[in-house]
Amino acid sequence: MSSVPLPPESAGGHLRHVMTSAAAALGVEPFTDRLGLPPASIAVVVLADGLGDQLLAAHSGHARFLASAWRNPRAAQVLDTGAPTTTAASLASLGTGLATGQHGLVGYDVFAPELGRVVNMLGQWDHDLDPLQWQPHPTVFERAAASGVRVVTSSRPQFRDSALTHAALRGGDFAGAQALEQRFALAADWIRSHRPGPGRLQRGRADPLLVYLYVDELDKTGHRTGAGSDAWLTALEALDAAASRFCQRLAHDFGQQVTVLLTADHGMVNIAEEFRIDFSARTDLLAGVAHTGGEPRFLHLYAAQGAHPEGIADRWRDAYGEQAWVLTRQEAIAKGWFGTVEEQVGDRIGDVLVAAHAPLALFHTTRTGPGPLKMVGQHGSLTEAERRVPLLELTGRGFVS
């Protein structure tokens, strides 16, 4: 088995520091600027779902505006996203400033001990699962708004009242649009509605503004056709053009008052069809397993009552130990994969975790149906391609050393 990867935050910054650092750069206490952001009165965080650092590096010719920041040491950092590298977990870390083991969104599908079944953490929350009980910690948006900051999320309309939003991104205003360009326009218009532009007088002290702008086109396209595909490159070019126009407009109107950051929730790797493996018929691997969860590159295996996790882990190591890291829950927690794990969160984590490091994805279609087998782009594990994401400062102000 390949050596187990270092835990998140073993070196450098983490995605969970982005929104808290942005709030600190606005002067909000008691947040700490862990990332060296320049002081601002307008802070914008653009989250490009699926744009891993390696993907941006490999396709920088299709993102010249973003690449100009990425190549500038003063304007670029590389962040860790934690475990697992999946949208629900990462957005919860971004929105709360907490590690996975604290906010409790520990995967895509996870076991809810109080309900006795596996539940979804992204877009299909069960009706009897209360987001505020599942993730009770206040969000950065709530804390910033309570301190006098005006906050807005610009995203797709269907996310306005989603369970994930209520769990991890609640607080402030919401502006919804399906089209990528329109989401940028709504964010810019909201800023202008709260802050006079050139030649207009401001009466009194202007409230600080915190903007969260969500872009999911790259992730959706990558799942369908693969990261780096023609369709994916078209989506990257559209993001680059929209971000360029947005930043030029804000820099012209507000100058040194504004900082625009772009980051991502995870990277993505392409998995060939022959390496998308359905283990539903493997009775040897499912012996002693009551529930499966997680995602194809980061499985959670929940042991049946009386079954021994060590035995389950041994069988999976025999089958996939050369292609995946196989750890028990206790081993993964001891390794720091989930950060500090709060009491109510521990049993949501699988008794055994199978995190692929080879180009491999493992599916339990008896539970999920066959649809996920069609997905080309995958993420979830702790490879460098999946866990490292860029942090770019796009207004030319750079990070403070």
Q: Can you offer a commentary on this structure?
A:
InterPro entries: Alkaline_phosphatase_core_sf (IPR017850), Phosphodiest/P_Trfase (IPR002591). Pfam families: Phosphodiest. GO terms for molecular function: hydrolase activity. It is a single chain. This protein has 401 residues and is an alpha/beta fold. The chain has 2 domains: 15-105 and 120-270 and 384-393, Alkaline Phosphatase, subunit A; 273-377, Domain 2, Phosphonoacetate Hydrolase (Gyrase A, domain 2, 2-Layer Sandwich). Helices cover 33% and strands 20% of the residues. The protein is built from 16 helices and 17 strands. It has helices at 18-25, 53-58, 64-70, 87-96, 100-103, 131-134, 140-146, 163-168, 180-194, 217-225, 230-254, 283-286, 309-320, 329-335, 365-368, 384-387, and strands at 42-48, 76-80, 109-112, 117-120, 150-155, 173-176, 209-215, 258-263, 269-270, 276-278, 289-295, 298-303, 324-328, 352-356, 361-363, 377-378, 388-393. Strands 2-17-8-1-7-5-6 form a 7-stranded mixed β-sheet, sandwiched between helices. The chain has a 4-stranded antiparallel β-sheet with strand order 11-12-14-13. The longest helix is centred in the middle third of the chain and has 25 residues, at 230-254. The radius of gyration is 21 Å and the shape is globular. The mean pLDDT is 95.
